[in-house]
């Protein structure tokens, strides 16, 4: 009863979950142009899932598995039957591939050729991220049980919270649920103390899950939607933020009648929802004089897309960030890879792979 009364008061006052105020991008998240000004390595369609495997930088583009060569060329390695949603590698030579068709494949290593269409009793609908604990054990984020990864906007707009984190023994295929009822978990990384970090996109936070199963938020109220978590030097973690939060989108999420009609009547590409790319169509919901004046982007114009990567320390505290701002083109950063030469960043919305000095 208390929760019902609290929600009523929140809606009445515009406070709590009913508030549309957003945390500012300040301090370590202060905007800059480091992604926009970074060195272009290659232009390629919708690059994602950067991973170092057998000394090579691999990435995906739709259903294609590709390699970025040392001379800046793209080599086609394989084509799958559906979109590649995640890649993760292990020193044993194993490469795990999550496919949008609802399947996980293992190539190379001690479990070469293994295919999984379910994790225990849990069907694979939206495989979003994974990491090897060892050569025989895989941690996997399943973002949703209702919507495929390509329907992520629908999952957000329908308040999806059916995601889970699973641990699978590749020898026996025994699966253990580490966490469930999460709002689109889309990034996972191992902690030195044996726990794991998971990004929960729709709740704009990063969770720490201890070995005993205790879940603790370590980073909350982010100004964007976090996705992949990638280990860096020492205990650092690189966190990709694929889109910004805006007051307009927060408002739409609270206007149920408008939101339901939008979902029913409009193509998802043109919803008032986060986007991976800069506006490029006259059908965009925000355009023209609402965004620009005399060809210049208004400083107060709401943007549905940005490029953002954040470096976290071992405690999950941000201390450095790289941006492609609202007037840039390298938006929708879903993946990155630290290397000796710098941070390689995949701008899925900007069709580019770049390298920034950190």
Automatic annotation (TrEMBL):
Pfam families per the UniProt record, alphabetical: Str_synth (PF03088)
Alphabetical UniProt keywords: Glycoprotein, Phosphoprotein
Sequence ranges assigned to domain Strictosidine synthase conserved region in this UniProt record: 135-205
Top-level taxon: Bacteria
InterPro entries xrefs: 6-blade_b-propeller_TolB-like, Strictosidine_synth_cons-reg
Presence of keyword Nucleotidyltransferase: no
PANTHER family linked: ADIPOCYTE PLASMA MEMBRANE-ASSOCIATED PROTEIN HEMOMUCIN-RELATED, STRICTOSIDINE SYNTHASE-RELATED
Family: Belongs to the strictosidine synthase family.
Protein name stated in the entry: NHL repeat containing protein
Organism: Sulfitobacter pacificus
């Amino acid at each position: 009863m208390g929760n019902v009364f609290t929600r009523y008061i929140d809606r009445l006052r515009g406070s709590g979950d009913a508030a549309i105020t957003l945390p500012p991008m300040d301090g370590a998240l202060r905007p800059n142009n480091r992604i926009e000004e970074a060195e272009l390595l290659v232009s390629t369609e919708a690059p994602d899932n950067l991973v170092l495997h057998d000394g090579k930088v691999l990435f995906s583009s739709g259903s294609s598995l590709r390699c970025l060569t040392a001379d800046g060329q793209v080599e086609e390695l394989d084509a799958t039957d559906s979109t590649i949603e995640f890649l993760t590698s292990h020193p044993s030579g194993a490469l795990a591939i999550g496919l949008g068709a609802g399947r996980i494949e293992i190539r190379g290593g001690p479990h070469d050729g293994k295919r999984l269409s379910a994790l225990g009793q849990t069907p694979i609908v939206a495989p979003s991220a994974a990491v090897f604990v060892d050569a025989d054990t895989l941690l996997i984020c399943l973002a949703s049980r209702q919507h495929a990864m390509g329907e992520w906007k629908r999952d957000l707009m329908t308040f999806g919270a059916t995601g889970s984190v699973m641990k699978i023994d590749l020898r026996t295929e025994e699966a253990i649920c580490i966490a469930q009822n999460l709002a689109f978990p889309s990034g996972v990384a191992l902690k030195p103390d044996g726990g794991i970090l998971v990004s929960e996109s729709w709740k704009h936070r990063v969770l720490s899950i201890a070995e005993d199963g205790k879940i603790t938020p370590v980073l909350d109220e982010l100004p964007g939607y976090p996705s992949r978590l990638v280990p860096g030097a020492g205990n650092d973690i690189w966190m990709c933020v694929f889109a910004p939060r805006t007051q307009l989108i927060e408002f739409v999420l609270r206007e149920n009648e408008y939101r339901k009609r939008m979902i029913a009547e409009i193509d998802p590409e043109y919803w008032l929802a986060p986007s991976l790319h800069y506006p490029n169509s006259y059908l965009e919901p925000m355009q023209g004089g609402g965004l620009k004046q005399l060809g210049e982007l208004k400083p107060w114009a709401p943007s549905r897309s940005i490029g953002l990567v954040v470096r976290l320390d071992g405690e999950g505290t941000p201390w450095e960030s790289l941006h492609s701002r609202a007037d840039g083109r390298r938006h929708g950063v879903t993946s990155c890879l630290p290397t000796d030469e710098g941070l390689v960043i995949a701008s899925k919305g900007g069709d580019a792979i770049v390298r920034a000095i950190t």
